[in-house]
């Protein structure tokens, strides 16, 4: 099950990273 946990963690990191990039893009668009 370790593989499954690592895969879920990677997916979570990817989602957070995407959200962070999107937020930064929105901020740069505002200013």
Automatic annotation (TrEMBL):
What is this protein identified as?
Uncharacterized protein
């Amino acid at each position: 099950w370790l593989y499954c946990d690592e895969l879920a963690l990677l997916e979570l990191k990817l989602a957070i990273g995407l959200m962070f990039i999107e937020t930064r893009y929105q901020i740069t668009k505002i200013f």
